């Protein structure tokens, strides 16, 4: 499936952006293309941290990608633009993590979202999960010895979630058959 996420021609840091695209396109049927005349597209903006809207908003949609953002951070923001919320805001999160509200500054980033979980289990290893600290503990897994907040790769469940959301099954089957 081709998405409507496209690049503006003036973008810098193209290698990093392409690496983040590859983290997604290598394991899903989602493809990224440069903007031609499309009216809805992603516009990469530097200088405002790492941030993205969730889902397609229409028009020139800003994705903030400043110098401190890694390729993994950018991949996380792209998944927001593709429609994914933070894993730790799932409705069932209190079974798996403890939120320490007294240490949280940006409360909106920890509010529960009644989003579609695609019938997939809670995933502490998701690239969409926050880490455990902002200096002080913010979100802690109930299961001991688990690392959370990785930004290195899509987890197996991240991959399944995207492939379900974008109905990649048939495309991936074809890929394996050829
Ligand atoms: Zn995020």
SSE map:
Elements: E1 2-7, H1 14-25, E2 31-34, E3 41-45, E4 50-52, E5 60-65, H2 71-81, E6 97-99, E7 139-141, H3 156-165, H4 169-177
Parallel strand pairs: 1-2, 3-5
Antiparallel strand pairs: 4-5, 6-7
Helix pairs in contact: 1-2
The site of zinc ion has 3 residues, from helix 2.
InterPro entries: Astacin-like_dom (IPR034035), MetalloPept_cat_dom_sf (IPR024079), Peptidase_M12A (IPR001506), Peptidase_Metallo (IPR006026)
Protein name: Metalloendopeptidase
Domain Peptidase M12A: 1-169
| Strand tally | 7
| Major sheet details | 3 strands, mixed
Give the helix/strand class. alpha/beta
> What is the spatial order of strands in the main beta sheet?
3-5-4
Secondary structure: helix percent = 10-25%
Q: Any low-confidence stretches, pLDDT <50, length ≥5?
A: none
- Principal-axis shape equals globular
Please trace the helix and strand order, writing H or E for each element: EHEEEEHEEHH
**What's the overall average pLDDT, rounded?**
89
Q: What percentage of amino acids are in beta strands?
A: 15-25%
- Ligands, deduplicated: zinc ion
Gyration radius (Cα, Å) is: 17 Å
Pfam family, one: Astacin
Binding site for Zn(2+): 76, 80, 86
Protein name: Metalloendopeptidase
Active site: 77
Describe the structure.
- It is built from 4 helices and 7 strands, in the order E-H-E-E-E-E-H-E-E-H-H.
- A 3-stranded mixed beta sheet has the order 3-5-4, with helices on one face.
- The longest helix has 12 residues, at 14-25.
- By secondary structure, the chain is α/β, with parallel strands linked by helices.
- It has 2 domains: 4-83, Collagenase (Catalytic Domain) (3-Layer(aba) Sandwich), CATH 3.40.390; 86-153, no CATH class.
- The chain is 24% helix and 17% strand.
- The mean pLDDT is 89.
- The protein starts with a strand and ends with a helix.
- Bound molecules: zinc ion.
- Zinc ion (ZN) binds at residues 76, 80, 86.
């Amino acid at each position: 499936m081709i998405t409507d996420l496209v690049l503006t021609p003036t973008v810098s840091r193209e290698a990093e952006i392409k690496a983040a695209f590859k983290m997604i396109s290598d394991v899903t049927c989602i493809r990224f293309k440069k903007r031609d005349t499309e009216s809805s597209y992603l516009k990469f903006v530097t200088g405002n941290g790492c941030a993205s809207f969730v889902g397609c908003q229409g028009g020139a949609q800003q994705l903030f990608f400043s110098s401190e953002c890694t390729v993994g951070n950018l991949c996380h923001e792209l998944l927001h633009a593709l429609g994914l919320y933070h894993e730790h805001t799932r409705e069932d999160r209190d079974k798996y993590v403890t939120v320490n509200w007294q240490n949280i500054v940006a409360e909106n980033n920890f509010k529960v979202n009644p989003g579609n979980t695609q019938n997939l289990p809670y995933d502490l290893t998701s690239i969409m999960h926050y880490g455990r600290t902002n200096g002080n503990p913010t979100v802690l897994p109930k299961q001991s010895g688990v690392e959370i907040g990785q930004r290195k790769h899509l987890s197996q469940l991240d991959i399944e979630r995207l492939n379900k959301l974008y109905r990649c099954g048939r495309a991936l089957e074809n890929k394996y058959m050829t």
